[in-house]
Amino acid sequence: xxxxxxxxxxxxxxxxxxxxxxxxxxxxxxxxxxxxxxxxxxxxxxxxxxxxxxxxxxxxxxxxxxxxxxxxxxxxxxxxxxxxxxxxxxxxxxxxxxxxxxxxxxxxxxxxxxxxxxxxxxxxxxxxxxxxxxxxxxxxxxxxxxxxxxxxxxxxxxxxxxxxxxxxxxxxxxxxxxxxxxxxxxxxxxxxxxxxxxxxxxxxxxxxxxxxxxxxxxxxxxxxxxxxxxxxxxxxxxxxxxxxxxxxxxxxxxxxxxxxxxxxxxxxxxxxxxxxxxxx
Length: 280
Known about the structure:
Elements: E1 2-9, E2 19-26, E3 30-36, H1 42-49, E4 57-62, E5 65-66, H2 72-75, E6 78-81, H3 92-99, H4 108-117, H5 131-145, E7 149-153, H6 161-174, E8 180-184, H7 188-191, E9 197-202, E10 205-211, H8 212-218, E11 219-224, H9 227-231, E12 235-239, E13 242-248, H10 259-268, H11 270-277
Parallel strand pairs: 3-8, 3-9, 6-7, 7-8
Antiparallel strand pairs: 1-2, 1-4, 4-5, 9-10, 11-13, 12-13
């Protein structure tokens, strides 16, 4: 169980907080997509969850233990791959030897398998790689830690097309009810098919928190030029094919979620979106 309890955080106490009285509860495993505008506080939230930042007020708990205390019980069960990072000047083998002891469930064999997915070998110097290759190494190590919570901030940035495919194959294979994957991204099309839960953050708060199944049960996503459908839509936006619509799903039709459109709806009229689900 991962709980963010009424957290407020500001990088400068004289300025408005990045997050204010923010709460979130993740009670089961799965792949959670974290969406939000630039500056909405997504990365800050991820660092708070991992215990790398201290909230001005509130707390983050993993299995009722405060992650900011950086105790072995939480450090060994949370791994974060930030959007931007660098490696020390050392071989990958030395990096693994130095860092893997912090993660009791780390698997060297899985590390090798993950590297192979990205067409890399362990006999490399991590500081001399391109940014894309560094991202592949970081993801390979993160995946091999087998932590309860794996946090990925813009994981597909810098990856080539084969790398993105390999990343999706890993997540599809590794996701289960016992592990929590939190993926923060603007590249929603890279990960849309992986997600089973959508979180939308904006204006310092959590605007939307629903499973993919709940969304598909209530909403239907279509592109059309039919004016009758446009008039009956909860939300509409211009698209190449006319209008992209979010409609009531009165017929129980299973349509692919348009995450960009759903985010637009949450950003522009969060109360209207929330009201659709309030009578559950």
